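Problem statement: downstream parser choked on a complex file, so we are re-checking the raw output for the pyridoxal-5'-phosphate run. The parser issue turned out to be on our end (a line-ending mismatch), but while we're here, posting the original submission so the record is complete.
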Amino acid sequence: MPIPVDLRSDTVTRPTPAMRAAMAEAPVGDDVFGEDPTVNALQEMAAGLLGKEAALFVPSGTMANQIAIRILTDPGDEVLLDAQSHPISSESGAAAVISSVTFRPLPGHRGLLSPEQVRAAVRPENIHYAPARLCCLENTHNQGGGSVYALETVAAIRETAADLGLSIHLDGARLFNACAATGHAPSDYARHADTVSFCLSKGLGAPVGSILAGSRGLMKKALRWRKVMGGGMRQAGILAAGGIYALTHHVARLAEDHENAAVLAQGLAGLRGLEVRPEEVETNIVIFRVTRPGLGAAEFVRRLAARQVLMLPFGLDAVRAVTHLDVNRAGMETAIQAARAVLELEDG
Ligand SMILES: *Cc1c(COP(=O)(O)O)cnc(C)c1O
């Protein structure tokens, strides 16, 4: 049986032998006592990369987002964010449970907000309105198809937010993909946010973990809320070592994933029965529509899987494919040929 070309998500990456070796050899201690040298080293490294005073290693990107929302709001506050953002689409309603906030979903352009939108969404102080206190940005934007914020837009939103008394949390689950696409440093984006998070467990290839960073004061609060949420881990240096390895060896290669996504999008765009916009593929995510009458996303994905190519249905007619370090250029050709076969098209 051939190994499937797994394009469902960049979370499916497995640690490489070299990463596993680094993990096996990591010096560890009790991180709840603040005594794990490898966790401390990862946190310092991440804070440095983001230009923030402090960083915290957390088990998941969801926990990073939820801690950020918790420490930047009070119960009853309103949070502005794109309607398809991760906290709305994929965090199981956690902010309602943990922070008792209300969401104000805004229609972003491919998930990206504009400063004008943020300004228009904030209502004047009035006893009828939940006070808007936080704006969450997602860069790159997952459901927006890996779309990337222009740095000037983030800077302008920051200025508007400051004017309106809003904090900014930057959900940078794929921040390093945004940086690979634009050439900006992570700190260039992070400068415009109070808190910033990124995932070690996606395209960077570590098995577990995310980073949340911000000021020393905010990270002190974050440490407490990580404990409240049950995210205090003990000899977590074994996991953190995977993160250090990822930040050292897997950042530069993200450009390869972006090239592969572009190749995939170009190839799929040539197939009748699909609607693909290769010009919108900026990073490692390709979202396209199945337009062949009567087929639909779920059936298309089922038939692809029978040919050892895995993608995710993303609604009734949309499909998502994500490139990462466990798939290569040959895999893109396999995926394109499988899609062609599923659509029952002639070769060439
Ligand atoms: C993956 C992801 C997260 C975090 O997801 P976890 O599965 O909790 O690690 C957060 N935000 C975005 C945009 C993501 O894509």
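For whoever reads this later: The mean pLDDT is 97.
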